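Work Package 3 (structural annotation) set out to generate three-dimensional models for the target panel prioritized at the project kickoff. During this period the team completed the workflow that converts sequence records into discrete structure tokens, so that structures can be stored uniformly alongside our sequence database. As a representative example, we reproduce one entry of 382 residues exactly as it appears in the project archive.
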Amino acid sequence: MVVTNNKKIQELMKASYSLEEIQEVSAMLSQEDVFDFLILDNGLFPAAAAVGAENTGYAYVWVRDNVYVAYAHYSLGLTEIAVKNAQTLMAYFQKYRSRFEQIIDGLSDPAVAMNRPHIRFNGQTLSEVEENWQHAQNDALGYFLWFYCKLAREGHIQLQQSDVEMLGLFPLYFESVQYWQDEDSGHWEEGRKIEASSIGVVVTGLRTLKQLFTDSTFIAHCCRYNDQFVTPRRLEDLIKKGETALGKILPHECIQPEPKARRYDSALLFLIYPLNVISGAAADQILQGVVNNLQGDYGISRYLGDSFWCKNFLLTCPKISKHPSLQSVKPGLRIIIGRFRWVKRLSGVFLTLLFQRYTASGFKLTVGPRIWPSRSLISIDL
């Protein structure tokens, strides 16, 4: 079922669509600038383009969000935009490769989030931000490793020795922090715990790196750090550790004791698409869990008791969180109203993919009225 509160779009809504009709909808959205993203000269996407964003921190760049937006462009054939973004992210990681090396060498404590590779930074200067942040996010690093290796494997990026050396630091870093049992802040940048969604992303990144070793042009001997070589066997061992952990945790997000335990989390959906870590009956079980427990009238909540207002809001601000005005908010509405940066991952050019993929399967696409200049709020109800 397709529902819209936008009269202009309503005229184009039908029970089913031909390819030409989908293209017509896409053309109309393009004319309304729905698919436009602010792109920095170096190819990175800042979190927000609003005036004054530099005063909120949303003018910065998030690694994970950039991979999603770049992947959306890639999926629609806009490969040059995706490649430029990925190469600039690589340049950033190369600039701060010491973050990886110090943890690999045991000179820096990964328990301190600020010691880890920073996943939020100044995109204009490719510089770290001094503000304290939850940088322990293995998923963000895994997303980059996956996407960069994917582009390289498909021939869109010609790897140089410095690139291969940098790629080699990722598995060594994941090995050092023991990603399969490492507590990180994950997709939602909140309290640290052992999360299936983070482990799954790293598994995909390692698998994609391993596939590069089958390419005769891959300079495998450069995939090393000092006397530590990254080999297919070493990668396979790391992958198996992650797969074993997933086998114990899924379909849960976290099985640690309360308050860290979490049964349902929409971040697990990313392991189904676009990462394809989970498929078949396991994917169906996770999807059904989200539908039954997290689906709302306008999208989905990240998890039960979604605390988007701030880190662990419901735990740290119990009196405020019990206010009647917040109790009346339906699950799913919160994710759209309060997490515009997250919605960005499911907006813009990515919407074309979702539109074609999900409306044909009976899912509900909701297009709301404009809530800021040149934008309409669009969400997918699973």
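The CA atoms of residues 180 and 241 lie 6 Å apart.
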